[in-house]
Amino acid sequence: MTFSDSLRQVLNLNDLEAQARQHLPKAIFGYVQGGADDGTTILHNREAIERIRLVPRILRDVSRCSQEVTLFGQRFASPFMIAPMGASAVVAYDADNAMARAARAARIPYILSANAITPIEEIGRSYPGCWFAGYQKPDESNIEGMVKRVADAGFSAYFLTADVAVGSNRENNKRNGYTMPFRPTPRLALDMARHPAWLWRTGLRTLRRRGVPKISNIDPVERPSIFSREISAVTGYASFSWKHAEMIRRHWKGALIIKGVLSPDDAKMAREMGADGIVVSNHGGRQLDCAPSPMDVLREIKAECGAMTVLADSGFRRGTDIVKALALGADSVLVGRPFLYAAALGGQKAITHAIGLLQREIHINQSLLGVETCGALREIAQV
User: Are 71 and 331 spatial neighbours (Cβ–Cβ below 8 Å)?
Assistant: First the structure.
């Protein structure tokens, strides 16, 4: 089967996971797909979205439906974006650039992860003005240096990933043989050898063209390799607190967003310290297992946000999922894993295909709900 034939079989974002499971080594796929502890939060994210029902309105003129949204002063084509994902270019060759270019062409936001192996400066050229999500050391000189680096690369928004005080319990990674720092083993080598398409198109190609991958964006200067013990710190810092977030606010002149909010009280604190937005998120089920879904708390959190922009992530896969989040008060939604699966299967072309599928679903849903704009979705009835 050719790549084009395979892509034609992808009719929605869920189809990408099934194909990626076959293409990727078990350790790599498990790293992307898995969550913390027993994975109950991953399952609950879907249950919380699926239990919401939408009431359509009929006989309304929907001939001029628009799904455009304005976020932090920028106009975008659709109410979703590509979420930050660490080690993406280990999963798919040059995945960070592929996602950035596809997002730019589609006029949707792209957020680069601090855990990426592709340098900030390179992504800044692929998508000028895109956004960055950082794990920041609790040190003002380091904060000042990192903020300057992000600004010099031309990024326009800084997402502080705030829900990673310590690394979570990822038992699935241990069972599958995926570790950070990366540790080659005979078992892992056999796993990769059994997936020659990934080994040739991503693993060996990355080593040949870029050398040993480095975590490029967690520090103003340091670039530890994926084999270095230093990268155990990329999960965050236990002593990082609101006072350090306020330091970022003082030094960063662009939009500042706090990512990982599930408490209305934390949303209020983010607003009071001068954040421009928050992401209501349980980190896709990858941090605290048994955490609530954003859909459980979104309406209550929205009430505390005032003029702040409210984004949401964790488990969104369909146009209806996004419409539901907007109806509950979100301004836009982050989508992660499916776009990384697309990158692994077919690079920028597959990502563009996935973006188009989601845009088509949103357009159909708006039309059937009788709603011409994303803002008007907050007025629709839900059951």
Answer: yes
pLDDT digits over 145-179, tens only? 999 999 999 999 999 999 998 988 999 998 988 88
Average pLDDT estimate for 301-318 = 97
| pTM of structure | 0.96
Higher-scoring residue by pLDDT: 138, 233: 138
Which of 44, 244, 283, 353 is the catalytic position? 283
**Rounded Cα distance, 332 and 72, in Å:** 11
Which are the contacts of 343, defined by CB distance < 8 A and separation ≥ 6? 88, 91, 92, 95, 98, 99, 350, 351
Residue 346 is inside which H or E element, if any? helix 337-369
283 labelled catalytic: yes
Nearest alpha carbon to residue 313 among 42, 128, 101? 42
Q: What pLDDT, in 10s, does the model give residues 112-131?
A: 999 999 999 999 999 999 99
Q: How far apart are CA 132 and CA 57, in angstroms?
A: 39
Domains and CATH numbers, the chain: 3-379 (3.20.20.70)
Report residue 188 as tokens.
Answer: 């892992």
Q: Which residues of 221-256 are buried (b: 16+ CB within 10 A; e: fewer)?
A: eeebebebeebeebbbbeebeeebbebbbebbebbb
